[in-house]
Design brief:
Elements: H1 20-34, H2 42-50, H3 61-68, H4 70-81, E1 85-88, E2 92-95, H5 99-104, H6 106-126, H7 140-157, H8 160-165
Antiparallel strand pairs: 1-2
Helix pairs in contact: 1-2, 1-4, 2-3, 6-7
């Protein structure tokens, strides 16, 4: 049985340095075009965008900077290039290549984060007792905002129907 040939990312040509995030976006788009659907380790991304001859170590500060920049890179890809960044803690990162995989992974993750944020918003709002907040000019706009906006939003987003709509369908495991 033959092993699949590892993609050659050494063909990547670094450009004039803009920012770490822009360099990562440029590399992700290049890799998407040359090797669609293939994950690139964070170490290799670091090596390629910095033009290093050797692969940096897993605990290298620049590799950690690449890992930390992924959320900003994801936003740039979505806003400027019509794709997203798919990440895996072991495999690394890659740009999405089609809508099906965006639906399958990043959108499901985003729905989970939204559900979590919705729950945290509700829990935090529940901590407020407006009777305990002083009736001063300083707090008047906040109390009005809480009563007029926060309470109705909490009621609408905490309905079971809202939460159920964010749950992705259960998938059957391949046999």
């Amino acid at each position: 049985m033959s092993r699949a040939k590892k993609p050659d990312f050494s063909e990547y040509e670094i450009a004039g340095r803009v920012s770490l995030q822009q360099d990562m976006v440029r590399f992700a788009l290049w890799a998407k075009e040359k090797h669609p659907g293939i994950f690139v380790s964070y170490r290799e991304v670091c090596q390629r965008i910095n033009g290093y001859q050797r692969l940096p170590g897993p605990k290298d500060k620049q590799v950690e900077a690449v890992r930390r920049a992924t959320s900003r890179v994801r936003r740039l890809l979505i806003e400027q290039h019509g794709c997203t960044l798919i990440t895996d803690p072991v495999l690394g990162m890659r740009a999405s290549v089609n809508s099906a995989e965006v639906l399958e992974d990043p959108l499901v993750r985003a729905a989970g984060r939204l559900r979590s944020a919705q729950e945290m918003f509700r829990l935090t709002a529940d901590l407020v007792d407006t009777k305990e907040v002083p009736n001063t000019p300083e707090y008047k706009p906040l109390k009005e905002w809480y009563s007029a906006s926060v309470i109705p939003v909490v009621k609408s987003i905490t309905t079971t129907d809202f939460a159920k709509k964010l749950l992705p369908p259960k998938r059957e495991e391949p046999k």
